[in-house]
User: Fold this.
Amino acid sequence: MLRNLVRFHNCLGHAFSPPTVCPRGQMLKLLSVKSYSIITERKKFYEDVSISHGEGGMFEINLDRRKLKTPGGKLFTAPNEALAIAVANEWDTQKDILKFYSMHMTTLCNTALDNPTFRSKDQMITAALKYLETDTICYRVEEPPSLVELQNNEWDPVLNWIEDRYNVVIGSSTSILGPEIPQATMDTFRLHLGSYNFWSLTGLEYVITQLKSVVLAFALIDKHITVEQAVLLSRLEEEFQIGHWGNVEWAHDVDLYELRSRTAAGALFVHFSSESSTVKRKLMQD
Assistant:
């Protein structure tokens, strides 16, 4: 599944073959999960980049032999080679115009390093669990019957899986208030989220916000569903409406591919930031 995520991210223009060099220059303020403002594009200002070993086993990104910095002015470091390679390739694959909004791995690293909203792990977990109270797949319609059937057929298997997997009760509801989530379920998920390190939790929260679903995010990270499936399930009602009423095709495609790209990047970030050992070039080329 991890290899498939890499390939999927590659096909959207974010290659992950190990670079020997990666861009240089001062890092602009990039969009964080919550609060960074962003300059979306800028003329390319560097030639090449390299990855080097830093202190404490960290990896640094060198832009034309100058060390990359975060928007907050910290030295940009990645905890392992896999994540460093991912970031380096985001910069290395940029053309004449830098499209910062497409550099999701860089943005997530900046967020983990700078923590611009000064949140603790407990605060991040609380914010993530808020999405369970309004989880996409827990809100059901009462009509039309065809959409009711589609939601039941597509969402129930994932909901049943997570309830069995974590031994919890979530349920679904047609009420605008959504289902009432038992405290025991919240406690179980809080404990599970607490098992992630700060970096991985940053990525997981990002995936949750993209899908607007804790259930789908957990299913994706646990490799129960693919990125494509997670995105389709998160957009089920919208896709149903498009199937009936049509859409502006190019706009739909752009939205769909961008959501897939962000979701794939977030999932990769979770797995890469959980990786403690270095990643060999052969693994990335496999």
Strands lie at 41-43, 49-53, 59-63, 66-67, 77-78, 97-99.
